[in-house]
Amino acid sequence: MKNLMILLAVCAALTSCSTCYECTEDVVIYNGNTPTDTTTTSDEFCTADQTEIDARESAGATCIAN
C-alpha cells in the first residue's frame, strides 16, 4: 500500500508540471518537385520538456501555451 501511495505521488508531481501548447506551422504542398500550395497545420499537446518546444520552434513552428 505504501508503494502505491508513493507511485501516485510521483505521478501527480510529474503531471502537474506539464503545460499544454498549440503549435502551428506552414507546410508547403508539392506536386512532384514543384511547390503548388501552402497550408497551416496545428498540433496540440502537453509536455513538461521545454526542449521539445524549442525543437519545434527551431523547425519553424509557432507555439503558444494554452
Tell me what you see in this structure.
- By secondary structure, this protein is an alpha+beta fold.
- The chain has one domain (19-65).
- Helices cover 36% and strands 47% of the residues.
- It has 2 helices and 3 strands.
- The protein has a 3-stranded antiparallel β-sheet, with helices on one face.
- Strand 1 and strand 2 form a beta hairpin.
- The longest helix has 15 residues, at 2-16.
- It is elongated.
- The model has no long low-confidence stretch (mean pLDDT 86).
Summarize the SSE layout with pairings.
Elements: H1 2-16, E1 19-31, E2 34-47, H2 50-58, E3 62-65
Antiparallel strand pairs: 1-2, 1-3
Short description:
The chain is α+β, with helices and mostly antiparallel strands and 66 residues long.
Q: What's the overall average pLDDT, rounded?
A: 86
Instruction: Work out the radius of gyration.
Output: 18 Å
- Say what oligomer this is: single chain
Q: Which secondary-structure class do the elements indicate?
A: alpha+beta
DSSP summary: helix tally: 2
What general outline do the C-alpha atoms trace? elongated
Low-pLDDT residue spans: none
Number of strands: 3
Main sheet specs: 3 strands, antiparallel
Domain tally: 1
Distance between the termini: 36 Å
Strand content: over 45%
Residue share in helices? 25-40%
H and E string: HEEHE
- Strands of the largest sheet, in order across it? 2-1-3
Which tags fit this structure?
alpha+beta, three-stranded antiparallel sheet, elongated
